[in-house]
What we know:
Layout: H1 3-27, H2 33-53, H3 61-82, H4 92-107, E1 115-121, E2 128-130, H5 138-142, E3 154-160, H6 173-184, H7 186-198, H8 210-224, H9 227-235, H10 247-258, H11 265-277, H12 287-300, H13 313-323, E4 338-344, E5 350-356, H14 367-379, H15 381-390, H16 398-430
Parallel strand pairs: 1-3
Antiparallel strand pairs: 2-3, 4-5
Helix pairs in contact: 1-2, 1-3, 2-3, 4-6, 4-16, 6-7, 6-8, 7-12, 8-10, 8-12, 9-10, 10-11, 10-12, 13-14, 14-15, 14-16
Amino acid sequence: MNVRLIQQQGRVRLAREMLSRLRKDAAQRPWGKWILDLISAVLDCIRKDMDEAIPDLETDDKATNTIEDCARHADSLQMLMESTERATGRLAPQVFRESFAKLAEILLPGAKPPEILISSLAGPRNYSMDTKILEGLKPVYEKGYTEVQFPDHSAILHCPGPEFEDALQHAAVFHEFGHAFRAWVKGLQASGKALENKLPRYSVPEGTGLVQELEADAFAVRVAGPAPGFAVAFKAGDTESVTHPPRADRIALANLYLEPFTDDEYIHWAHTALQDELESGPHTFTDEELKEVCRSVDENISSVHNYASSEPYGRIKSLADRICSYVPPDILYNKLPVTVITEKTDNGKSQSHLRWNNDTIDDLPSMKDILNAGWYVRLNKKYWEPFVQGLGGSLDNAEDEFKAEAKLNRLLTKAMETVHLMKKFFQDRRGQ
Length: 432
């Protein structure tokens, strides 16, 4: 009895079972065509290599190595599938993609739109961005077994499972977007390396490094305003890590970035709120070093509109007022993009139809506006106290505040999802 052959045959059987399961699982996932094509190509490649190696298992060590490679590729594919799209029941991933796509149009002109997968992890409590998801599968399409057209850029955005309903924390996704665009935009790469050379004591041999984290923070505040700074100040942990700067440094950077725009009432309020959180905690970077990070990011994404300079107070206050009135999310806006028109037909009957208002669809609040309004309600006692009291609670009771924040998060989540659906429906109708 050839024990080695029996072992290899058992490995082949397990690999075949995994391939069958993976193909079935992939078909049931609501992914874009490109990733389904990729999975199909990988599966076909693994099966082809395996079929060619099986006859030589007993005599050829190369065949054994091929089977081991096939099993490893199958494991990589399974990890990819298990780590993505666990949040399939929510619209939040589509909302994230929409914001990401708008930035990509500006920062990656001429490139095919990047593909982003969303993962909701059960363990980690932070967000992260992986821009190397295809690295482990390169051998498949380098062999020429498939003509699948892969995207120029792709990423997985990992979101924390336990906090996926925490809309206030969603502001952190703009920090992760900063990491992705740094990897893809040559100007950001070059300036980032130059910064690390200027500040060598902060570079980290392994991991993203302290400077890169601060660059992502500056990117987030520029494109989304104070909300990402609040997510760091009130949602991030206080402990310093090997790859991330102290919380106090990250708050200081957000505050320095907002400082020139405090003529706007909302930005002034946000600057003060962050300043109050700045008094405690260790600092690693000097103010001048933090300003250098901000300048570097500004120079390389100057084409992206600066949220803090757009006088957001009117938009944020209007949304905050409506949130505190517990207005249903679908009418959380000043105007809807449709008007119901009722007309008399020739036979005297009434007939109603919708008239699309082309000038109002762009007036709907963005994800950034909704998140900033949410933080304005949560941290501004003028709004937060009546919000909690309206739910029958009191600011003297921590449990009442916890329940009120959960209610606020549900309102914000539904508002973002509804705006997304309304825009998509309008765009689909307009394209007909």
